[in-house]
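PROTEIN DATA CARD
Card holder: Rad50/SbcC-type AAA domain-containing protein
Chain length: 43
Origin: Sinorhizobium medicae
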Amino acid sequence: MTRYDPSLVVKRLVVKRGANTMYDEAFHTGVNVVRGDNSSGKS
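Structure generated from the sequence above:
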């Protein structure tokens, strides 16, 4: 029997607005926390 363990690994997140980089962060293995004010667009 073959077991599938689907996963998604995000190594880096870059958010751009036009030519400007608004957010650029590299993530590490394990738990990474993105925090910010309410209604700031984290989700």
